[in-house]
Amino acid sequence: GVLISYLYHFKKEEFGRWVLKLRWLLFAGAVLFILPVFSAEPKKSDFLLTAGLTLVYLSFGAVLSVMLYSSEKIWRARFWAPLRVIGVYSYSIYLWHMPLRILFSERMPPSLSPLLVGAFSILYVFSSVLAGIVIAECVEMPFLRWRDEIAPSCG
Predict the structure, then answer these.
(1) Please, where are the H alpha helices in 53-89?
(2) N or C: which end of the chain has fewer CB within 10 A?
(3) Residues 53, 34: contact at Cβ < 8 Å?
C-alpha cells in the first residue's frame, strides 16, 4: 500500500503507463490469487498460511493500482455506491468478520450440498457487513464524533 501510494504520488506517469500496459495481466493474476480465499479454510490451507496471504495482499494491491488508473466513467457508475458504504465501515467489518466466520463454521453441518455451502457463505458475508455497520454506528462513530468535538482537525 505504501509503495503504491509513493508511486502514484511521485512517479504517477511512469507507474500509470506500466499499470495500463499490464492491467489485464494484473487483474487476472489478482483474481487467480484471491479465489483460494473463498474456497479454502484458512486454518487448514498450507497455501494460505504461507505464500497465500502475501499473494492475496499483493493481489488487492494490483486491483487497487488498476482501479487508480481506470477511466472516470467507471467511478461514476451507480454500482459502486454499496462498496463506498462498505468502505466507510470497513474497519468494523474487518474486526467482526472472523468471530462471525467461527460462529458460522461451527454451526455448518459437515456434509452440505455446494448450493447450501454457497447460501451459508452469502449469509456469512451479509451478516459480517451488517454486524460491522451496526457496531460501527453504535460504538465507533459516536467516539469519532466525540473526538472531533474535543480535538478538531486542523485541515
Answers:
(1) 53-68, 72-76, 81-88
(2) C
(3) no
